[in-house]
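[retry 2/3] ATP-grasp fold succinyl-CoA synthetase-type domain-containing protein: previous attempt timed out, resubmitting with same input.
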Amino acid sequence: MAASMFYSQLLAAATLRSHLLWTALRATAQALGSYGLLNNHGLQVQQNLSLHEYMSMELLQEAGVSVSKGYVAKSPDEAYAIAKKVGSKEVEMKAQVLADGRGKGTFESGLKGGVKIVFSPEEAKAVSSEMIGKKLFTKQMGEKGGICNQALERKYPRGEDYFAIGMERSFQDRFCHRGTYSIVGDTKPAHI
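[retry 2/3] ATP-grasp fold succinyl-CoA synthetase-type domain-containing protein: success.
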C-alpha cells in the first residue's frame, strides 16, 4: 500500500513537471513571437524555406560550387528529350516533391520509389509518365501525399554527399542532432 501511494505521488509530480515545462515553453514561444511553433498538440515543424532539389543545385552552382548538371522535365516528352541530351547509359530520375524519403515512396500510379535509374530515353519517358502529375506518398507525408510536377534528370552519379542543417529559429540551434529524418525515423523515431 505504501509503495502504491509512493508511486502515485511520483507520477503526479512528474505530470506536474511536464505540464509546467510545456506552459513555460508556450510562454517563451509567445514572448519571442514564434506563434504556431507550439500548440496544444506539442511541437510543430514550421518550414519557412523549401526548395526543390534542382533549385538547390542551381543556387550552389551560382555560388561556385561544383554540382552535376541536371535538367528538369515537366512532361514525359521532355524527359525523353533530356535523356537523349544527357547521352549516358544510366540516367538518374528524381521526383521533385517537397518531402523526405522520396526514394522509398510510392506513386498513386503504383510506381515504387521517386528516385529511379533509367537506361534509355524510352524508359525515361515511361517512368516519368508514372511520376509527373501523380501524387507521391512517403512516410513523412502520409495519406496526404504530394504532387510531382517535374522530375530532375542527370547522369547517374556513382556517389554523392548529403549536407543539411535543420535550424529552429526560436532558440537558434539545430533541432535534430542525429541525422536526416529518414535515417533517424527508421532507427530512433523518438529523436525527431
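[retry 2/3] ATP-grasp fold succinyl-CoA synthetase-type domain-containing protein: The chain has three domains: 1-44, 53-155, 163-192.
[retry 2/3] clearing retry counter.
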